[in-house]
């Protein structure tokens, strides 16, 4: 079979009896899973009745009903094969006409209506198929060098003709025989590609040269209303022509004539472009598509394009001026009677450019990711990053790796040197990861499938050997291959960030300033990698200079003996955090406190909860544990609470349950008379302030999420002691005032 037409995984076929001893059409097969992505997709295809109702649509393959070719009764020519449901007779022209198999018939309708959202991909598919045909030729030539005799070159050519509205894609690959055309183009599951893959695997576990998808060829109907395939196989002394039209239910096969201009070996696909698709005959458009989707195909792709060629022409004005100067000198010499021996001036030439049309190779670049990392210099990685992702600063780090085994892919990931200017919109659609399948560009809009949202700042290229070319967002979401790839990409990215964090220079400070919020978002959203992300977090603390940050590992290393937990306080500024009364007792004990001054910080800490077996504690909430307390201290605290009980009861009664849930003696205050702390569960006072400021905040959520308030009093404060004395003396009105 020939892979430049259709590719699919092979499924068991259901044998049928040939309608005639002379004609042996292909057996009806089940729909290929790779071609349709799932059996559900085929089940959703239009029924026969629905197809008949759609007969008036532009894509008229839907009109077909028969599942396999049958010979029309009463025809004397045994070479004419036609479905009984066909409504229009065409001259056979000495060839054979076949009905599309039912699976292909339904597929053709789905291709136009749902499978491909961007018709540009038709060229990507046909070029990829041609590349597979060349791969097959190269493989075959190892054991049979004679296959290269007709044409030693291995290349593809693309030529558009705007005048005739046609497009030709030609390759010098393996080519097809008549039987290949019959078996490959009427069905998908029995494509030549699938057969070749089966043969390869039966011989050895060799390279996965050929794709396993089966709809590539048919995507040409997105832009063409007629397709003509002219092909010649090295083992066949004849060339063959396959033809089909978009408003026909069948295809024909005949022997090629001189007028068909068959290649010496290989396949030529002629597309008669639809109305509205004339742009695909223009060389600039074709060149752009090749560079976008097929730039890294391993075989040369030549596009017939306009090219400016320099040529030397005479500069008439300069030549005349030189001649005038020469004659002037000659006359002067003769007037003086002197001998004049200067040579006559040569014509003065100049370079002009003229536009000529010729085949130009458009894919000169070898993809950097297929090379060994040992063979690539740092400058090459940096240049690739800047040219591919339109950056002007070198990346902070890159990671070039290959994954082998059940799932194979290669990738280069980059951490940019600065945040994009439109960072607010970065989460929406960053186009950060370019997905390739066997060097063929697929899309840069699958970021969320390959990396979680918080890593959208990462730039990179991923080249998979296991995904189909007609990959969609739905396929990625359901694919086990993508899930494995995603895990590896996340792990490699975090490894990169750890490497940056371990540097002695200021690279990580640069990274943190640009992308620190992304990692905090990751702590909230990525439960599986919270510990790894926790080590990358940085915060200002009560012991750092203004603007300087510290990681949790450094915090733990600096914890004094007896400190049980990691403490933090949330505020809107560093100054507010430093002046917070919640810090008083901790500062006295020498405990360091993290300052959460970014609105997302407190939410991130609430999700992280602990780091390296140390709990993360908000010091603005109740039941603050400041470490082990001896029995004498506990006894003294109990005595103070009993002593202050009349005051706390009076305060509770005066303030009422609507304002505070309870009044207690504080263990965290040294100077401030009293503070309000919130319950362990629910929002802190700072978070409540943030949520109230939200333009689209939910008032109902605020009612049940805000924490209950506890008033803590400082038993050593002169204000509290004076208040206690007044309550004890019965001077309630003065105390309340």
Secondary-structure content class: alpha+beta
Strand content: 15-25%
Helix percentage range: 25-40%
Q: Number of helical segments?
A: 25
Query: What is the total tally of β strands?
Result: 23
Mind describing the biggest β-sheet? 9 strands, mixed
Main-sheet strand order equals 1-6-5-4-7-3-2-8-9
The pLDDT mean sits at 76
CA radius of gyration is 39 Å
Notes on the structure:
α14 (507-525) crosses α19 (599-608). The model is unreliable at 1-93, 188-194 and 203-214 (pLDDT under 50). The strands form four sheets. The chain has a nine-stranded mixed β-sheet with strand order 1-6-5-4-7-3-2-8-9. A six-stranded mixed β-sheet has the order 16-15-18-17-20-19. It is of the alpha+beta class. A hairpin with a 2-residue loop joins β12 and β13.
Keywords for this entry:
737 residues; six-stranded mixed sheet; alpha+beta; nine-stranded mixed sheet; single chain; 23 strands
Tell me the layout of helices and strands.
Blueprint: H1 33-36, H2 39-43, H3 48-53, E1 96-99, H4 102-115, H5 121-143, E2 156-161, E3 166-171, H6 178-185, H7 192-203, E4 224-232, E5 239-245, E6 250-255, E7 266-273, H8 283-293, E8 301-314, H9 316-335, E9 349-361, H10 378-388, E10 397-403, E11 409-415, E12 433-437, E13 440-443, H11 447-450, E14 459-464, H12 473-478, H13 480-501, H14 507-525, H15 530-534, E15 538-541, E16 550-551, H16 552-557, E17 566-570, H17 574-578, H18 584-589, E18 593-596, H19 599-608, E19 610-611, E20 614-618, H20 631-643, H21 645-655, E21 662-665, E22 674-678, H22 685-692, H23 699-705, E23 709-713, H24 718-728, H25 732-736
Parallel strand pairs: 2-8, 12-14, 17-18, 17-20, 21-23
Antiparallel strand pairs: 1-6, 2-3, 3-7, 4-5, 4-7, 5-6, 8-9, 10-11, 11-14, 12-13, 15-16, 15-18, 19-20, 22-23
Helix pairs in contact: 14-19
